[in-house]
Amino acid sequence: QRLRGSLVQHGLAGTWTRLLRELRGSTAVSARETFAAPGEEFSPFAVPGSAQPRVSIIIPVHNKFAYTAACLRSLAEHADATPFEVIVVDDLSTDATAARLARISGIRSIRNVENLGFVGSCNAGAAIAQGDFVLFLNNDTLVTAGWLDALLRCFAEQADAGLVGSRLVYPDGRLQEAGGIVFNDGSGWNYGRFEDPADSRFAFRREVDYCSGAAIMLRRDLFERLGEFDQRYAPAYYEDTDLAFAVRAAGLKVYYEPRSRVIHFEGITAGTDTGSGMKRYQLVNREKFLDKWNHALRRQPPPGTPIHLAATHRARRRILIIDATTPTPDQDSGSLRMVNLMRILRGNHCHVVFMASNQAWVERYTADLQALGIEVLYQPWLGSPATFFRERGGEFDAIVLSRHYVAAEFIGLARLYARKARLIFDTVDLHYLRELRAAELAGRDELARVSARTRAQEIGIMRECDVTLVVSPVEQEILSRDAPGVVVDVLSNVHEIFGCRRAFADRRDLLFVGGFQHPPNSDAVLWFVRDILPRVHAAIPGLRLHVIGSKVTEAIRALASEQVVVHGFVDDIAPAMDAARISIAPLRYGAGVKGKVNMAMSYGLPVVATPMAVEGMHVQSGKEVLIAETAEAYADAIIALYNDETLWQRLSTNGLDNVRAHFSFDAAEKAIRRIFGF
Question: Whole domain around residue 152: which residue ranges?
């Protein structure tokens, strides 16, 4: 049915292009990289340390200089943009460590006067640190490209981050740890141990119980305020877990950051036998840890908890979201709404799992979701959706099925295997309404028949789900007539408020923003350039139209001229929003709330729109926007607004107020709490 409708609307070539775009995906799996043990040969080298470091990297060492040298060389090779210093604390090594450290420039080296063990050596290094952050790094590690910047990015993006740890990988390419789990008996679990580090289960940022001290970072003032590593765990073991619990007790969180990858030759210094040597302290210190954190441990999961649930045990609710493709929020408003929905759910302590119907890993966009803490499912790690639902369906409190053709594919599996989940059908917009309006505009009976079939499917799915989401009260009212008895709620677009950042006199030209995979946008620009722009040019000869949007069609590209600048996709929309004097939304058909209008108003950029473009947006012409339906009236509105600073300022101010009231994160959070029952 969907294919038939696309053929009618877009033709064979257009349908084939859309099909390839939706099904195309790249694999996230790369050949497993391995690392050989370092050799004993040595020659002097330099590490690019900074006299004004942002991060102090503290490396405790005891013998095994070949590993220390390899670690320092990797720091030199993968020095990120972040200025850092390296402090090597020699815990009375008896090999060539002291002499050879003196031949490595760019580091600060200190030698303990007595053997302090890992705990004492780390504290000694921190005592002379100059950076805003201290990073404790084992000497039997190799860092990789981007590792340090990734840790800092986590602190920048997570205001509640107290301690952040890297993804640890064995030299044979297997995963050592994707964050640690602590059970209520004090026992620990290295999540993902010996698994493939590329597996999607371990590829998203996650709050964790602790991160192994082989590569962890926290603010220096916090480390000092917490009393550094607790000396009761000297010489080593459980000090990292204890520190993580102390960070949490201080009201902050511990995060695992998968974009920071560190290779760890585990056990090189201390061995792996817990019955002898340094490793025996692992058992001794567990009892100390149990005694100190007995109360906090009661909130930890019991041993035997399914491990993927234990890894996210702080989640209050578990939400599965299925959409057609991975959201591309810089390309279309539906994607932006979806990503912001997931942001709000994460902010309300939900573990969010996202799956695209095409099950593809998409360069950049999948990783962006994972950086938000979203567990994204994709091939080859997903397997079949039926297997996934059979194995994990029972854990979800709610399942969001986005778009009717996606819901039709998964609603059966959801009802069969996720019986406790509330089933939420997100229409995005009413597809049948958009198709009907396109049919009426074009006067084509075949499009009307497509709309009727879509209407039957959409309403049928609504009747099978617990609640249906629309983006405006207008569509809610339409469904009260077309689908009586269906529970319908409104979750509209969600936008950040950027504010008006440039004065009227410093702006010029017109701006259209919209992805051209969406036919109403193409129709709007073609109509505007053909029927409206010549009238505007007659009054304002030097004015230009800037057209920004992804997936530009040949018809739109052909409009390019001195007066029409077709930019296509741009990475950052803000400069265009700040430079334009008017945003246009000349849509002649469609459905839902238009992100292009919300976006412009969020920047304080006044909009001239058709009635269709501002349907359900709580606006009045002359107050928040100017509304015009005919080509002549539309041109007159642009000319009037372009030359009237007082009118422009009124629309700018009121437009911002409109977004705050109806389309901001605060407004959306109220709706989401109501819909999901928080």
Answer: 48-310
